[in-house]
Amino acid sequence: MHTFGTPQTGRAVPTIRPPRLRPGDRVRIVSPASPPSREGVARGVELLTSWGLRVEVGEHVFDRWGYLAGRDEDRAFDLNSAFADPGVRAVIAARGGKGTYRIVDDLDTDALRRDPKIVVGFSDLTHLHLTLWARCRLASLHGPFANWRDEWSGPASADALRRALMTTAPVTLQRDAREASAAVTVDGTATGVLLGGNLDAIRTEAGAGLPSLEGAVLFLEHRKGTGLGEVDRALTQLTRTGALNGLRGVALGQFLGFDQGSDAPAPGGWGVADVLRDRLTRLGVPVLGGLPAGHGPHPPTLPLGTQATIDTTAGTLTVQPAVA
Questions:
Q1: For 45, which of 53, 82, 234, 324 is 20 to 30 Å away at the CA?
Q2: What phi and psi, each to the nearest 5 degrees, are found at residue 74?
Q3: pLDDT surpassing 70 at residue 109
Q4: Are 289 and 183 in contact (CB under 8 A)?
Q5: Which of 79, 89, 115 lies closest to 21, judged by CA?
Q6: How would residue 249 be classed by pLDDT, with cut points 50, 70 and 90?
Q7: pTM for this one?
Q8: What is the mean pLDDT of residues 241-254?
Q9: Is the dihedral of CA 165, 167, 173, 178 positive or negative?
Q10: Hey, what's the torsion of the CAs at 173, 175, 181, 183, to 10 degrees?
Q11: Whole-number mean pLDDT of the chain?
């Protein structure tokens, strides 16, 4: 069990790693954010069932309220019901999108502290991962949604998710020179608890529950948005609030919409690698870019809340399992 010191007290707080899944375990699909498709969830149920798991679908998974999967209280109800059910051993988000940030204050994280279980998702689910770490030091999985599309996720993603859920093998990602962030490197090695996820979600949590990142390796990825200024503003806000103080290192995943070799003109000649380099090198810690994790196709599953090492010479991020 890894321990992580809190800056307020200096006291070591243990990481909680839920038990790995075994055939016959119950897992529940929930929709904390935007609504999924029925066809995608049906395919996700089929995939999880093929691993010997018993799959349940939350009561409000297919609700719709504007761009959200139902009203806030109903989305929170489904999460809390899964957290409190002793037979449910994993909670898998159906989809990201928008809305998880609206319900994190209403979640029963005490139930997870008493009975740890695996939580899976990414993108808008970064809000949930950060909340679970801040309140109960629960390790979780930055992984694909149950709204499954074979042409998008594919066999490699399925196998990575299965191994992260059902084995205690560490996860290693190798730098990919084709990623837009691959040109960003500050040489060195760094070891710390891996925290993070979607850059915009992390920025949104600053001042609203973002846990201390002191002693952490910060993982960042970004989906296509409004351009370089969005990345710049997010990193500048995190810097100005002091959220990045005490980091051990930074692991950069996919920054979509800024692909290497794009013919789109860059303002002032800068690309996303220039913005990342400008904002991150001043932290004085190792930075490894080019990790193939984020909103792109064939996503890996990455443990969060466990010890990780970046090695810029080898071009690797190695993370200890989120399950025990």
A1: 324
A2: -80, -40
A3: yes
A4: yes
A5: 89
A6: very high
A7: 0.94
A8: 98
A9: negative
A10: 160
A11: 93
Q: Please state the length of the chain.
A: 324
Locate 69 and state its tokens: 């999967």
Q: What is the pLDDT of residue 227?
A: 84
Place of tokens 């994790």: 293
Q: Following DSSP, what letter does each residue of 228-278 receive, concatenated?
A: HHHHHHHHHHHHHTTTTTT--EEEEEEETT--TT--SPPGGG--HHHHHHH
Higher-pLDDT residue of 100 and 11 is 100
Interhelix angle for 228-240 vs 272-280, to 10°?
10
Residues marked active site are found at 123, 221, 295
Instruction: Give the DSSP letter of residue 46.
Output: H
Q: 48-53 long-range contacts, Cβ below 8 Å, gap at least 24?
A: 48/92, 48/146, 51/21, 51/23, 51/162, 51/165, 51/166, 52/22, 52/23, 52/24, 53/21, 53/23, 53/24, 53/25, 53/26, 53/27, 53/90
Strand partners, 101: none
Q: Is the dihedral of CA 305, 82, 45, 34 positive or negative?
A: negative
Q: How far apart are CA 112 and CA 98, in angstroms?
A: 23
Beta bridge pairs of residue 259: none
